[in-house]
Amino acid sequence: MLAGLERLGRDPAPLLADAGIDLDNPTLRIEVDRYAALYNRIIAELGDEGFGLFSQPVRPGSFEFLCRSMLGATTLADALERAGRFLHLVLPDLNITIHRRGDMAQLRIVETRPLGPRDDPARVFAFEWLLRLLHSVACWLVGRGLALEAVRFPYARPAHADDYALVYTEHSSFEAPDLEASLRANLLDLPIRRDEAALAVFLDGAPGKISMLYRRDRELVFRVRDLLRDALPAALTVTEAAASLHMSTRTLHRRLEEEGSGFRLIKDAFRRDIALSRLTKTRQRIADIAADLGYADTSAFYRAFVAWTGLAPDRFRRQVQMHTGEDAAPFPPDTATH
């Protein structure tokens, strides 16, 4: 998101400070409210809702009129076609089309002008951003979640690809010629359920808030995360979660799949976020972190953490300490075997 600023020779430090974001420690995860604030500040600074990533600026107000153009449609298919036509006017570097193929439909985003080197972070973000934007608006327009069955991205697997399972779908793949997002074709027949009054509320804080914070399609994901948090240090099972939500295990699996997620994915991401936070911000013993997260033994936590980050938790913590130049006493040794 900062790539456009850098291309234009603008210093992002003041904008980061205004949004309360510190990039000196890359292990810290940015809160979505601060991300949205930075998103809107960059747009205001550049006068460009496209972050300076494209051959011409996407003038402020374009997002609002994109929504208005889609709001007048009768079905989601019509709304997405309108979005493609509108974006052709304000964002000619990318072409958006929607096609039905049997019981599936494909939303394609294709470069009409190269955005940069294939794996350039600015190009990667441009595709991520536009897909998030279109998907969020589409979910809002029909008033329900729209599960993406699969997404093929036109670049190599990025370092943050593990997050794609929660942002897009666990069926995300890379090295495709163009971006192609697949969804059930019958979703295109859903009626548009929003009106002008609802749009006024939706646009509050837009477009930054919309692209990251409109997660109507993730309500059950958040409810499951809350249950996992409340159950700690016990390791909540999917059967227990389903009972708490007054549904069968099968229904829970199905509804999470419709939201592009799954119980194991949510549980792993929840544990990972807490583990990263505690290893970074506290001096708690690794064995105690493992116990607090519901692991039966420390070795199981070590294996999980290596799968998440490629590093053992004690090595990760040492790297954080070295990066921050911390002069305090060393972290307490962990004598548990792993």
UniProtKB/TrEMBL annotation:
Alphabetized Gene3D superfamilies for the sequence: Homeodomain-like
Signal sequence region: none
Keywords for this protein: DNA-binding, Transcription, Transcription regulation
Presence of keyword Transcription regulation: yes
Record InterPro entries: AraC-type_N, Homeodomain-like_sf, HTH_AraC
A Pfam entry, by short name: HTH_18
GO molecular function: DNA-binding transcription factor activity; transcription cis-regulatory region binding
SMART domains: HTH_ARAC
Domain HTH araC/xylS-type: 222-319
Name used for this protein in its record: AraC family transcriptional regulator
Species the sequence originates in: Denitromonas halophila
